[in-house]
Write a structure and sequence with these properties.
Immunoglobulin-like, mainly beta, 7 strands, 0% helix
Length: 106
């Protein structure tokens, strides 16, 4: 199961910088080790996270096997308008996960 904790300020003034914090619960399994049954565990990591807001991509990170389990990301953007920040994660094997967080601009 995929779980993400997203922290966005409850309110911001137009033009004000805001910090967004994201903690994802994911094992980020580098793979390659024995599965105990004679097979090999495949790599299964989140390899990309993007965030879009007000119709534009505001953040992107490409991850690899060097990223620890349960990755934490923090970034800043400028408050433009009230709207959703849409987060998308892409996992090895093609699975994608999407979450949204509302930013209210006064």
């Amino acid at each position: 199961m995929f779980n993400a904790r997203i922290t966005v300020p409850p309110q911001a003034k137009a033009g004000e910088p805001v910090e967004i914090k994201v903690l994802v619960r994911h094992p980020m399994d580098r793979g390659g080790q024995s599965d105990g049954k004679g097979g090999i565990v495949p790599r299964k990591i989140l390899n990309r996270m993007t965030a879009t807001y007000a119709g534009a991509e505001i953040f992107r990170i490409d991850m690899n096997t060097g990223v620890a389990a349960n990755p934490f990301v923090s970034f800043c953007t400028r408050a433009v308008e009230t709207g959703d920040i849409v987060f998308e994660w892409r996992e090895d094997g093609g699975a994608t996960y999407t979450r949204t967080a509302r930013l209210t601009v006064a």
